[in-house]
């Protein structure tokens, strides 16, 4: 009996020692708030929030030329920024990159594009890939879109406000809207189309 107590005591002591060990080099370099989990065609990794992660499609020079032209437009045109963000979310002619997509959507939303504001509201409400749900951010974007007359944003705004109250409410909201999510994500049209002379506004 005494031997069993000594064995248990030694096991507890060794566990306590493990708990107070110094951090390994990997633990010391664990991701901080300055990084974001990025998942793209090459896999998932933690990268700086400021890094440019989009690698383009080097195997197709024409697709790369189209992307560069759309990116140039997107710098000053909120509709083009929305299109670029949507293409990056879908992986339509480009490598999928949700982090870059959100950045372009935010640029479009800040430029007054109500479709981008609504999209961001839904993205933040539902969560997307490595990005979790953020009802407060969703409410902010939906409020902006609703103020600009977006009917979908007006309808979704109360759900974002309810989701802020507690996690169960947020879960119920996400489950209720999960089935309609794919309609916008897959079928919403772009503003710009590619023609023989480059991009043109429809």
How is this structure best described in words?
The chain has 202 residues and is mainly alpha-helical. Among the domains are: 57 residues, no CATH class; 75 residues, no CATH class. Helices cover 60% and strands 10% of the residues. It has a two-stranded antiparallel sheet with strand order 1-2. A two-stranded antiparallel ribbon has the order 3-4. Strand 3 and strand 4 form a beta hairpin. Helix 4 packs antiparallel against helix 5, helix 6 packs across helix 9 and helix 7 packs antiparallel against helix 8. The N and C termini lie far apart (84 Å). The N terminus is likely disordered.
What is the residue-averaged pLDDT? 75
Over the alpha carbons, how many angstroms does the gyration radius reach?
23 Å
Strand content: 5-15%
Helix content: 55-70%
Set out the fold topology:
Elements: H1 2-19, H2 25-28, E1 35-40, E2 43-48, H3 61-74, H4 78-90, H5 98-110, H6 114-126, H7 135-147, H8 151-163, H9 167-187, E3 192-195, E4 198-201
Antiparallel strand pairs: 1-2, 3-4
Helix pairs in contact: 3-4, 4-5, 5-6, 6-7, 6-8, 6-9, 7-8, 8-9
List keywords for this structure.
60% helix, two-stranded antiparallel ribbon, mainly alpha, 4 strands, elongated, 202 residues
Short description:
The chain is mainly α.
């Amino acid at each position: 009996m005494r031997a069993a107590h000594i064995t248990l005591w030694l096991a507890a002591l060794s566990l306590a020692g493990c708990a107070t060990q110094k951090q390994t080099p990997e633990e010391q370099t664990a991701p901080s708030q300055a990084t974001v989990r990025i998942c793209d065609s090459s896999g998932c990794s933690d990268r700086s929030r400021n890094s440019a992660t989009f690698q383009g499609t080097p195997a197709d020079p024409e697709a790369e030329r189209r992307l560069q032209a759309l990116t140039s437009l997107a710098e000053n045109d909120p509709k083009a920024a929305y299109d670029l963000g949507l293409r990056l979310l879908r992986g339509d002619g480009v490598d999928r990159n949700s982090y870059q997509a959100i950045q372009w959507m935010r640029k479009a939303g800040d430029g007054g594009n109500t479709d981008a504001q609504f999209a961001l509201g839904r993205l933040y409400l539902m969560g997307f890939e490595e990005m979790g749900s953020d009802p407060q951010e969703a409410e902010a974007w939906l409020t902006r879109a609703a103020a600009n007359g977006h009917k979908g944003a007006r309808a979704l705004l109360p759900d974002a406000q309810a989701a802020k109250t507690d996690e169960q409410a947020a879960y119920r909201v996400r489950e209720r809207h999960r089935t309609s999510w794919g309609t916008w994500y897959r079928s919403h049209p772009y503003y710009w189309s590619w023609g023989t002379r480059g991009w043109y506004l429809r």
